[in-house]
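User: Predict the full complex structure for these chains.
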Amino acid sequence: MLREEELQRYARQIMIRGIGVEGQEKLKKARVVIVGSGGLGSPIAIYLAAAGVGTIRIIDQDTVDLSNLNRQVLHWQKDIGRRKVDSAAEKLGQLNHDVVIDPIAETIDASNIGRLAAGFDLIVDATDNLETRFLLNAAAFQQKVPFIHGAVRGFEGRVTTIVPGQTACLRCIYRGPLPQEKTPVIGVTPAVVGCLQATEAIKYIVGVGQLLTNQLLVYDGLKMRFTTLMIRRDPNCPQCGQAGEVKT
Amino acid sequence: MSATINIPIFLQAFAGDKDSHQEEGQTVGEALANLCQRYPEMKRLLFDKQGKLFSYIGIYLNGTDAYPDELAKPVKDGDVIHVLMLIAGG
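Assistant: Here is the predicted structure of the two-chain assembly.
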């Protein structure tokens, strides 16, 4: 049941066909875990909190550094040296005091991902490395919840939504290690990609529209072009293929 | 057969600063080989020493993932090959 203040706060989105009061209540009940509170995690968390997602767990072990501030818009100059989850929780709480923000300053690994993702409806990928992404992909299968992947480099971005057991997964498209590098990035790229991920999350929670499943959305900021490529389940995928699931 | 090869931003610097190229070939592999002949640096970025595509390179033929055996996939006039270098920044 939405309070009068919530009806006012969300009035413009409640007007949208497909959301309405019922959709807003679904958002309020939803529990989303966002792994990473940097370039991608900032816009994802801001827009999910603004939309009224009831519980948002943010996991990040890192502290704010000056070099983060070109893109990680939840963190400001005054936050340098603070834990990112504390900085994020403060801003998000000020944006929407009705949302429960659950900050977790832990490094994700195989031993804790199951515990940290348990009981959530959705996992959103805002990490900066492939190893953690594979752990999240596996956790989504273990928890049987969707996993919304996003990645950026420079002016390029990628998004796909994975529904375990139904769609291609991250390991169907990322088949091996990537070259080690310090990723170049301009803040507007994770802003675009993070907003796309947040859109997918809202659509899934409310049950409106079509998810970006079995598709890889490729964003080219230099040409301002979006290309949708079709991806398929790989029968030999170590996560979702016939060989069986990778355990976390 | 002539196919269009689309190149992602990162690799364009090694392919004449162009985002697409027209290449001849009966297969995806032949079209990519012709591209690499014109831009030898691309060969180092796409293929390992055994001539196998790096696992972080994705090939999409007419908008669909061409994996597995991407290089053996036949191409016809007007086909579009997307070369993607997978990325993991956040």
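The first strand of chain A starts at residue 31 and ends at 35.
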